[in-house]
Amino acid sequence: MKKYLPYILIILLGSLVLFYPRVSDYLSGREHARVIDEYDQAVSAMSEERRNELLEEARAYNNALQRGESSSSVYYVETLNLGEVMATLTIPKINVSLPVYHGTSEAVLQKGIGHLEGTSLPAGDNNTHAVLTGHRGLPSSTLLTHLDELSEGDYFYVSILGTLMAYRVISVVVIEPESYDSSVFALYPDKCLVTLLTCHPYGINTHRLLVTGERVEDFDAAEYDNYQQAEARAIALKQKNSSEESEEESGFLFYIGTPRMVAEIPANEKINGKAIALLCAMILFFASVIIRNIRHRGE
Q1: 183 band by pLDDT with thresholds 50, 70 and 90
Q2: Per the omega criterion (within 30 degrees of 0), is the bond before 177 cis?
């Protein structure tokens, strides 16, 4: 048996490498969901008066920025700070729902979306331009990997203190890092803008991708609601293991229940289940072939 051990270890190592991105993305997706749930609970526990008070503080901060006044970093971090999270970002088209934190330190960008200090807070008021930034292609999390799939007319959503704000994409541009300055994130009268910023192209990161959305008051929340329902359905299926249906689905939901794929469960559940079963069968087949060949040589 010992002589077969190296080959078994190679197979196991290959399987770990193959499944690591999906597993790590699944685990980070669970962590994002936990943080967002805690944020929602903290907001729900507040009185409407307190929520309005915090929102007005954020808008006062934005007004100070508009007047060119500088604010201390302490004041910035304490504004909209509910357990370090200031808001949540949801982009149904690319199936991500992420917490938004203050600042853009590496520690922040490893766990979610960062808000660029010095730009407006995403409080929904006019004459503001908030910048939210995130990584692409982390081994442990999808984050904004698929942001380049957004185009003009698509929507993303920012939820802050229980208020859902919709942003329609009005521009998608790629620039060099040294090309953007304060003018790129300029303020426009009577407009509430949010720009999503990430590296580009994927895996090369020589440029920056900027997706800018303008807040719209009158919007159809069906896309957002459908995404939330799909996410809730995925969570419910993972927690339900007693019935035959849930046992059949839970095996592959571990792999496809990530932020990227959660809204595609109805269309992909059978395909992914069969694909994973086939993959496992192939691994076992090649392992048996290797062992049989080694035995034959030994004889």
Answers
A1: confident
A2: no
Residues 83-97: tens digit of each pLDDT: 889 999 999 999 899
User: Which token pair is 25?
Assistant: 């993305």
State the residue for tokens 């990997």: 145
The per-residue pLDDT for range 61-90, each reduced to its tens digit, is 999 999 888 778 888 999 999 888 999 999
Name the pTM for this structure: 0.76
Those residues with Cβ within 8 angstroms of residue 35's Cβ, 6 or more apart along the chain or in another chain:
85, 99, 112
- Write out pLDDT tens, residues 18-55: 554 555 666 677 888 899 999 999 999 999 999 999 99
Distance in angstroms (rounded) separating the CA atoms of residues 74 and 53: 18
* 276, 257 Cβ separation under 8 angstroms: no
pLDDT confidence of residue 69: 86
84 Ramachandran zone, left/alpha/beta (phi>0; psi -120 to 50): left
Instruction: Return the residue matching tokens 């190592």.
Output: 13
Look up tokens 């190679």; give the residue.
Answer: 10
- CA angle, residues 218, 220, 222, in degrees to nearest 5: 155
Residues 126, 141: Cα–Cα separation, whole Å? 33
Four-residue CA torsion sign, 121, 28, 197, 165: negative
**Predicted pLDDT of residue 197:** 96
